[in-house]
Amino acid sequence: MDVVIPMASLLNWNITLPVQDEVTLNNSISIRCRGTSGAGQFELAGSNTTSGVSARSLIGSEIQFALINPIDPSHQIYIQERYPIRDIGNKCRISIQDNDTGIKRPNIGNLFAAVFLLPPVSGRGQSRQTDSDELSKATYWIDEIDCSAHQDSGRTWVLHPQQFILARNSEACIFDFKDRLLHIIALCNTCRKVPQTNGELSGLLDYFWQATMGYGILRATVAGQLRDTIMQCLAEYDKSYDGEKDPLPYLEELFHVHETSPKTIKQPLHEPLNLIYFGAPGTGKSHQLNKLAKKLL
């Protein structure tokens, strides 16, 4: 089967590690992968002068992430997990595990891998060798995320990612996460139109639709479990899929998503229009309503 690889899966590995300061976005809070244990430890650096916050000023606070919906920027995709920021060794460290409560949060790299339906990441500097530009399980890690910030309430700051830098071996690349979200929304939109086709996969993907369309907060632990199940099911449906590669292009081929450009997807209505048309018979009321319906559906 010929698989159409989306732009967000074909990456241009044109940055040399370590990532230099000129690659980092100005006026941003940077989340940087620095440790090598597990999938890496993450630290904060930089400052966002627009909101008057620096990495150091976030110590003692919590951070939460939100992504802008690429179709309708007025809607945000909130990720439920919150992370305390602590001073450890004079570094602004993102706390994954709370020793007092025993709460263990998803590693930041695997959190966003789940959100973007990407294969699980490797530890920093521990990626598997590959000759392909396509992502696969443990062949990359998320090295840096540059964010804007605003204070939500109390001790919580919401970080809005503006740039993702992925890395493998000795090279890195900019990840077009907005294009990735467009492809995910296009896939979910197609699945909802034909839910009887590959019904199990359609049901699993519906969670991502609800979250990306703003109908609920996305929980990364749930998204990760669903992503893993999707990859397993896809390997059963499609024998050309090995269960480790980026599942998105194979899902798009399975559901024939490439026949419809993701750029043309419309944001669903969150509220009814409640239109009332008055007029004598034969004045075109039904004609006008049918025209409007075609634009909205």
Could you please describe the fold and organization of this structure?
- This protein is α+β, with helices and mostly antiparallel strands.
- The protein has six helices and ten strands.
- Strands 2-3-7-6-5-9-8 form a seven-stranded mixed beta barrel.
- Helix 1 (108-115) crosses helix 4 (220-237) and helix 3 (199-212) runs antiparallel to helix 4.
- It is globular and about 50 Å long.
- Residues 1-8 and 261-273 have low confidence and may be disordered.
The radius of gyration computed from the alpha-carbon positions, rounded to a whole number of angstroms, is 21 Å
Q: Characterize the biggest β-sheet.
A: 7 strands, mixed, barrel
Total E-strand runs? 10
What is the mean pLDDT? Answer: 82
- Helix/strand structural class: alpha+beta
Biggest sheet strand line-up: 2-3-7-6-5-9-8
Query: What would the principal axes of the Cα set say about the shape?
Result: globular
Order of helices and strands, N to C?
EEEEEEEHEEEHHHHH
Distance between the termini: 32 Å
**Strand percentage:** 15-25%
Distinct helical segment count: 6
Helical content (DSSP H or I, runs of 4+): 25-40%
Give unreliable regions as ranges.
1-8, 261-273
Concise description?
Helices cover 26% and strands 24% of the residues. It has 297 residues and is α+β, with helices and mostly antiparallel strands.
